[in-house]
Design goal:
The chain is an alpha+beta fold and 130 residues long. It has a single domain (2-122), classed as 3-Layer(aba) Sandwich (Cytidine Deaminase, domain 2), CATH 3.40.140. The chain has four helices and five strands; from the N terminus they run αββαβαββα.
Length: 130
């Protein structure tokens, strides 16, 4: 969680003023991959901290995600947005997700946060015909 807190301090959030940090742990690496939100004046181009951390890990050749910590100050716990939940489910539907606002911390599985996710199991297999 401390790595996520540090990442939140580096967020670029001039529009929402809601700085989020994320630390993603992989199975075989001691150091987390971190991310922070990066906003853009064209709001749809903004990136969430969770997706930045995942992209960093994938760019380093990792896909064995086991746990994620998310930190943002505020009244509510900073649970991942719907897009991030779907994005994370591509890699591990049972990922442990710890969220903290500095006052409270809760741990969920991604499956709890996104029941009935859409995934590769829903797609036609390469061997199937139209």
């Amino acid at each position: 969680m401390e790595a996520a807190r540090q990442a939140a301090r580096r967020a670029y959030s001039p529009y929402s003023r809601y700085s989020v940090g994320c630390a993603l742990m992989c199975a075989d690496t001691p150091e987390p991959f971190v991310g922070c939100n990066v906003e853009n004046a064209s709001y749809g181009l903004s990136l969430c901290a969770e997706r930045v951390a995942v992209a960093s890990a994938v760019a380093a050749g990792r896909r064995d995600f086991v746990a994620m910590a998310i930190f943002a100050e505020g009244r509510e716990l900073p649970t991942p947005c719907g897009a991030c939940r779907q994005f994370l489910s591509e890699f591990n539907e049972e990922l442990l997700v710890a969220v903290s606002n500095g006052e409270e911390t809760r741990v969920f599985t991604l499956g709890e946060l996104l029941p009935y996710s859409f995934g590769r199991r829903h797609l036609l297999s390469p061997d199937s015909c139209c």
